[in-house]
Specification:
280 residues, four-stranded antiparallel β-sheet, 20% strand
């Protein structure tokens, strides 16, 4: 994603968050004199991986373009409970109005990055990529996929527009693995990946014979994963998916697959507990 596209994405996310939170106006902020200035510190109450600073900054700068934000950590850093992450100074009404949305972005994306890092660390030393999926929060897909990258993981396709993933219903509707792959190869433009999901070793053979180069092994057990890797050799890249937990992740990685996709990286949300403390 280009820098300009990334900035536009953040503006949209922040604008949408203010639309649902502030709406026609911040009634509580009217309790504070319009010209009063204030400062605040953001503290983490949990260990984790920091992520979401660009969204945090945009929240405050949208309501007060003259506010100052001094970061003591940056996206991708390991943070520890009790650590001060940043200091914010500016118009008091603006700081109070932006506080909740800014923290929502920061704690949500830090939680996603932390979860990704936990999985990446679990397979340390093994030549395998930890991949996300499209199981993301509505409206925050690009943000969560950014967080996965910050945590050391890799992105699957962003959406239906930038990659073809042929699943069992596509295969059934198209009349089989060979015809659906032939159609996919005709449709795919340069830079568009074509991946097919298989549910058995027999289907794996069909996919390989039809020229598949990226194959998702859906809910294969350990023995079948090993067999698939041995049978495939270097003819295609294999990705394990389905039923993957932190507890069995390393065993799956040791089968020799090149990629492991895990929907829970973005679907099972665990936020990082953050606190913003104001001073006069």
């Amino acid at each position: 994603m280009l820098e300009s596209e990334f900035a536009a994405l953040i503006r949209r996310n922040v604008s949408n968050s203010f639309d649902e939170d502030i709406g026609t106006g911040d009634l509580s902020a009217q309790l504070i004199p319009a010209t009063q200035r204030s400062s605040a510190q953001v503290i983490t109450r949990q260990n984790g991986v920091l992520c979401g600073a660009p969204w945090f900054d945009a929240c405050f700068l949208t309501l007060d373009p003259d506010c100052t934000i001094d970061w003591l950590a940056r996206d991708g850093d390991q943070i520890t409970a009790g650590q001060m992450l940043c200091k914010v100074s500016g118009n008091a009404r603006a700081l109070l109005g932006a506080e909740r949305n800014a923290l929502n972005f920061l704690q949500t994306l830090s939680g996603t990055a932390t979860r990704a890092r936990r999985h990446v660390d679990e397979v340390a030393g093994i030549n395998v990529k930890i991949m996300d999926t499209r199981k993301t929060l509505p409206g925050l897909r690009q943000a969560q996929k950014y967080a996965v990258r910050i945590g050391g993981g890799h992105n699957q396709r962003i959406g239906l527009y930038d990659g073809i993933l042929i699943k069992e219903n596509h295969i059934a509707a198209a009349g089989g693995i060979k015809p659906v792959l032939e159609q996919a190869f005709r449709l795919a433009k340069p830079g568009i990946s074509v991946q097919i999901e298989v549910e058995s070793l027999a289907q794996l053979d069909e996919a390989l014979a039809a020229g598949a180069k990226l194959i998702l092994l859906d809910n294969f057990d350990l023995d079948n994963l090993r067999a698939a890797v041995q049978h495939t050799g270097r003819r295609a890249e294999l990705e394990a998916s389905g039923g993957i937990t932190l507890e069995n992740l390393r065993e799956i990685a040791l089968t020799g697959v090149g990629r492991i996709s895990i929907g829970s990286l973005t679907k099972d949300l665990e936020t990082i507990d953050l606190s913003m403390r104001f001073s006069a």
